[in-house]
Write a structure and sequence with these properties.
Blueprint: E1 2-11, H1 17-33, E2 37-43, E3 46-54, H2 55-66, E4 71-82, E5 94-97, H3 100-114, H4 119-133
Parallel strand pairs: 2-5
Antiparallel strand pairs: 1-3, 1-4, 2-3
Helix pairs in contact: 3-4
Protein name: BLUF domain-containing protein
GO molecular function: blue light photoreceptor activity; FAD binding
Pfam families: BLUF
Length: about 130
């Protein structure tokens, strides 16, 4: 069974660009290895991440994130079973958004996804859009 978790968190104020680069590299490698798709966005000392994949692997990944000292005040916004992945076709699965060009590409992808009129996908899309626009 597939599952998605979407969470937001505050970053530890001691997080540096090097820490973020390490985090991005580890997230891409781990999520790729575990066939987890989604997106990770960092903005204004906050993270938003969407994880999609096998239920057990998504839950294990989220538990590791909760224990990561780079995150504070983790708030799980969505945690539910899904029929299909939202981000599977976006940029080869899992993407870290860390520059304006990638942010623009993500926004265009979200606009395209809206055409599918999937209620859960539109909930996730709305949260991601609110996060990147504010």
């Amino acid at each position: 069974m597939l599952k998605t978790i979407c969470y937001i968190s505050d970053s530890n104020r001691d997080v540096t660009i090097n820490n973020l680069n390490e985090l991005y590299s580890a997230a891409k490698a781990n999520n790729s290895k575990n066939h987890i798709t989604g997106v990770l966005v960092y903005k204004n000392h906050n993270f938003l991440q969407v994880l999609e994949g096998a239920q057990e692997l998504v839950d294990e990944t989220f538990e590791r994130i909760k224990n990561d000292s780079r995150h504070n005040n983790i708030f799980k916004v969505i945690s539910t079973s899904i029929e299909g992945r939202i981000f599977e076709d976006y940029n080869f699965g899992f993407t870290v958004i860390d520059d304006k060009k990638e942010l623009k590409n993500l926004y265009e992808y979200l606009e395209w996804l809206k055409l599918g009129h999937n209620k859960l996908a539109n909930e996730v899309i709305g949260m991601v859009e609110n996060f990147i626009e504010n």
